[in-house]
Amino acid sequence: MANQLCIVLDFGGQYNQLIARRVRECGVYCEIKSHTTPIEEIRSLNPMGIIFTGGPNSVYDESSPHISKEIFDLGIPILGICYGCQLMAYTLGGKVESCNTSEYGMTDTHYDKSCVLFGAVENLSDTATSWMSHTDFVSQVPEGFKIAAHTDNCPMAAMYNEEKKLYAVQFHPEVSHTVGGLGMLDSFLKNVCGFCGDWKMDDFIEKTVAELREQIGDKNVILGLSGGVDSSVAAGLLSRAVGKQLTCVFVDQGLMRKDEGDFVEETFTKLFDMNFVRVNCKDKFLAALKDVTDPEKKRKIIGTEFYNVFWEKIREFGTEGFFAQGTIYPDRIESGKGNKAGHGKTDVIKTHHNMVEMPVDIQFAGTIEPLKDLFKDEVRAVGEKLGIPHDLVWRQPFPGPGLGVRILGEITEDKIKVLQEADAVFRDEIRKSGIESELKQFFAVLPDVRTVGVMGDHRTYDHLIAIRAVTTDDFMTADWAKIPFDVLARVSNRLTNEVEHVNRVVYDITSKPPGTVEWE
Ligand code: XMP
């Protein structure tokens, strides 16, 4: 039901978007609003529930974010989390003090199951782990409140006033380390607020498309399409919203995987209504990379050339309209903009390792980032709903410089061809083996090493291919994947038989650290 709204009131905590995401997981539509939002505005939005987020401050600091007492008189259920919990206590006449020892991380927490927040959570033990991060605590709950949880160090880990439908937890139920945390949020939303929980990704698409139409009007939009998941899903959404007013610029530097450029072009020209512009500039890139062997120089050249081509194309189209990007929420965290919900900066292009400023002469009417509040798996869910092919939606990460970081030494057309073929064979075998979903990234590398071999009666002196497959949660650290020997044997056999100029195969068994996922 589109009218059922939960407001997440932002007090500057680092997990605010995660709270929003958990609320969506419970099938409830939510919007994040600043704590400065006037009470009148909150009332007029008619939310069925409000969640106060955490925040880095102490409630007794004059400068810390506060809230008018009136909010508690609206009759709307409220859940306070961490700072939000302390703020609720403080505002309603309780007492907040600094802890002797701050609590941080996984903490044994004792729950009183007669509180609906905990009693309704399936399989929640009386004592279970919660995730804490606080230096203040509520030393005295406000009148009419009961304590519903405590830890060995903190006498008040949760409090509630059932009659007024006010609930608060000192820990972070939104963080996955809190056992039963999602269930607690779900219980607040369904059992206390009365949400029916039927919000779906389709509703996100419908609402976003309507907002995009309104924002864009009759202007044009340009999007840099990389063929990755995020820009593809952003393109799909924009296409649904404004059709041919959208132009996607796809710069093909010739360093994509085998047939990938054609696949991207076919997908977006056949399945979606938009202007699709493919700029083939392999020769330009190869010329710029001639004789260059230093990894950093290669990266720099690829990045610089890419943006030269891209900005040139944009200047050709003109900048009267909007510039769109497939920025997703984790990108904003990585670039330090995570807390500024709804305030994406206009001068940053999303790339993984290279944040790039837009040239000063390029000034768009505005920037559009339709996925800026979503997490990767939510983006994929939207992509599936939009009908983007499975291979694109579930595409493994692929570095901006493409195969350029997987061809060691000088990059030449011949080497690109060998690597593309080898990589395609490896990926095909992984797909057939049924272990694809266990691997986060897998690819072939051309280390620019030739070794002696024998084929038939002949001596060969040809390329070595390295194959790399990793498992990881966040790519900050990674482990090499324990691919079964029979799969490795098939890969090796096919690579040396089917890929011309390959006579030896090695498997990279280096974790990160000390290795990186990519070889350059
Ligand atoms: P490393 O090699 O740093 O890779 O361990 C971690 C993850 O980042 C990807 N990667 C990149 N992605 N532009 C990107 O968009 C880049 O320059 C880049 N370099 C590495 C890599 O594929 C892995 O998923």
Relevant terms:
globular; 3 domains; Rossmann fold; single chain; alpha/beta; binds xanthosine-5'-monophosphate; 520 residues; nine-stranded mixed β-sheet; GMP Synthetase, Chain A, domain 3; 15 helices
Task: Give a verbal description of the structure.
The chain has three domains: 5-192, 3-Layer(aba) Sandwich (Rossmann fold); 201-393, 3-Layer(aba) Sandwich (Rossmann fold), CATH 3.40.50; 412-507, GMP Synthetase, Chain A, domain 3 (2-Layer Sandwich), CATH 3.30.300. 33% of the residues lie in helices and 24% in strands. It has 15 helices and 21 strands. The protein has helices at 16-25, 39-45, 83-91, 116-119, 181-193, 201-216, 229-242, 260-270, 282-289, 295-317, 329-334, 376-386, 390-393, 413-433, 485-498; strands at 5-10, 29-34, 49-52, 78-81, 95-111, 127-140, 146-151, 158-161, 166-169, 221-224, 246-252, 275-280, 322-324, 348-349, 356-357, 366-368, 441-445, 450-455, 458-471, 479-480, 502-507. The strands form four sheets. The protein has a nine-stranded mixed β-sheet, with helices on both faces. A five-stranded parallel β-sheet has the order 12-11-10-13-16, sandwiched between helices. Helix 14 packs antiparallel against helix 15 (485-498). The longest helix has 23 residues, at 295-317. The radius of gyration is 27 Å and the shape is globular. The chain binds xanthosine-5'-monophosphate. Xanthosine-5'-monophosphate binds next to loops.
